[in-house]
């Protein structure tokens, strides 16, 4: 079983970075919406990602308190919202990647062209369905898992039919993994397409001895940085949840994967902020003001 003290240390350390980054992303987009009364589609999805990450961080904080004060009544809620935030993160990141792919990559196919023209209309419904699916499946897993020691050895043992409880937990978690895996496959294919077309575009520019300073090339590079960063993060989240729940590896390896997950999370936020021009410019302004500001005399 993963050490409770280790989980508290990792959770607390990660929250010191997780909360400021996501609050920064959320506030920048909310203030921009308040100013312009509209947001770009990519900014809406990125805001959704930041909200799901804030929920994830909040559940980590509650887990620390429940471990320290030995509170068992909140385990199902923490587990459910934890899984829900991971699922929402994966699906929101997938739709962001698909949006960038449809916007940047040109493919002469009738169905692809149809998606390019209509995806922005379908996106609100896709986001709502992603939240609903994540909510239902996550709490379905949490309720079934509460009947046995299923996740990190921290849920209470069953008092009823053990085999039925185990079977229900395995079925519900399999459904959760299946839907998340579908999102990751769609994410991976769109991410590969964006990255491949960028490499091909750069090769053409090099052969023609042209620079990379055009607005379209810069936007393509920024989109690639964002989707690759998010793909790494979502893959690590998916792997972390899978390994933790199924107990496939020894504790030392699981400790390493948990730490690697949070390191990848830090790097992904760096890539996300750097890849979004609005977030990058705002952060640079804040750093500049904090660095060069002088107290009035």
Explain what this protein looks like in three dimensions.
This protein has helices at residues 4-36, 41-68, 75-104, 110-145, 162-207, 215-246, 251-275, 277-292. The chain is an all-alpha fold and 297 residues long. The chain has a single domain (4-286), classed as Rhopdopsin 7-helix transmembrane proteins, CATH 1.20.1070. The longest helix is centred in the middle third of the chain and has 46 residues, at 162-207. The N and C termini lie far apart (58 Å). The model is unreliable at 149-161 (pLDDT under 50).
How large is the radius of gyration? 21 Å
According to CATH, the homologous superfamily is Rhodopsin 7-helix transmembrane proteins
Oligomer: single chain
Overall body shape: globular
Question: What is the CATH first-level class name?
Answer: Mainly Alpha
> Would you count the extended β strands for me?
0
Class by helix and strand content?
mainly alpha
The tally of domains stands at: 1
Fraction in beta strands: under 5%
* Poorly predicted runs: 149-161
Euclidean distance between termini CA atoms: 58 Å
Order of helices and strands: HHHHHHHH
CATH topology: Rhopdopsin 7-helix transmembrane proteins
Taking the sheet with the most strands, its summary is:
none
Give the fraction of residues assigned to helices.
over 70%
Query: What number is the mean pLDDT?
Result: 81
The CATH architecture comes to Up-down Bundle
> How many H/I helical runs?
8
Keywords:
single chain; 297 residues; mainly alpha; Rhopdopsin 7-helix transmembrane proteins; 8 helices; globular
